[in-house]
Amino acid sequence: MFSIIFIALLILLITTIVMILASILSKKGLIDREKSSPFECGFDPKSSSRLPFSLRFFLITIIFLIFDVEIALILPMIIIIKYSNIMIWTITSIIFILILLIGLYHEWNQGMLNWSN
């Protein structure tokens, strides 16, 4: 019992020392004004905040997030095929992919995927 407490305290002490050393060694002595200023998508942070911003960047980000999340949802479907009813799995997969295809068609139809404008 005593040895477990001793080992736990020793591990706590070692990790604390390593974190303090990492904090001390990682600090830079020279602070650069340019590097310490915020960087916002290539815009100068010192200028007016009311500059026109293209919403296409925002829309492409949302589209990426939607299709990135759908990959995270489709991959486990392949793993659970062994453990589920094949008919229910097939219907669920078809409905899910159909919803994604309808969303992709809608984005294409609205011109969100066209960068020529």
TrEMBL record:
Gene Ontology cellular component annotations, sorted alphabetically: mitochondrial membrane; NADH dehydrogenase complex
Bilayer-spanning residue ranges: 6-25, 57-80, 86-105
Signal sequence interval, chain numbering: none
Entry membrane topology: Multi-pass membrane protein
Documented EC number(s): 7.1.1.2
Enzyme class, broadest EC rank: translocase
Pfam families for the chain: Oxidored_q4 (PF00507)
Predominant localisation class: membrane
Reactions this protein catalyses: a ubiquinone + NADH + 5 H(+)(in) = a ubiquinol + NAD(+) + 4 H(+)(out)
The keyword Transport appears for this protein: yes
Cellular compartments annotated: Membrane; Mitochondrion membrane
UniProt-recorded Gene Ontology molecular function terms: NADH dehydrogenase (ubiquinone) activity
Keywords: Electron transport, Membrane, Mitochondrion, NAD, Respiratory chain, Translocase, Transmembrane, Transmembrane helix, Transport, Ubiquinone
Domain of life: Eukaryota
Function, as annotated: Core subunit of the mitochondrial membrane respiratory chain NADH dehydrogenase (Complex I) which catalyzes electron transfer from NADH through the respiratory chain, using ubiquinone as an electron acceptor. Essential for the catalytic activity of complex I.
Membership in a protein family: Belongs to the complex I subunit 3 family.
UniProt-recorded name of the protein: NADH-ubiquinone oxidoreductase chain 3
Native source species: Drosophila simulans (Fruit fly)
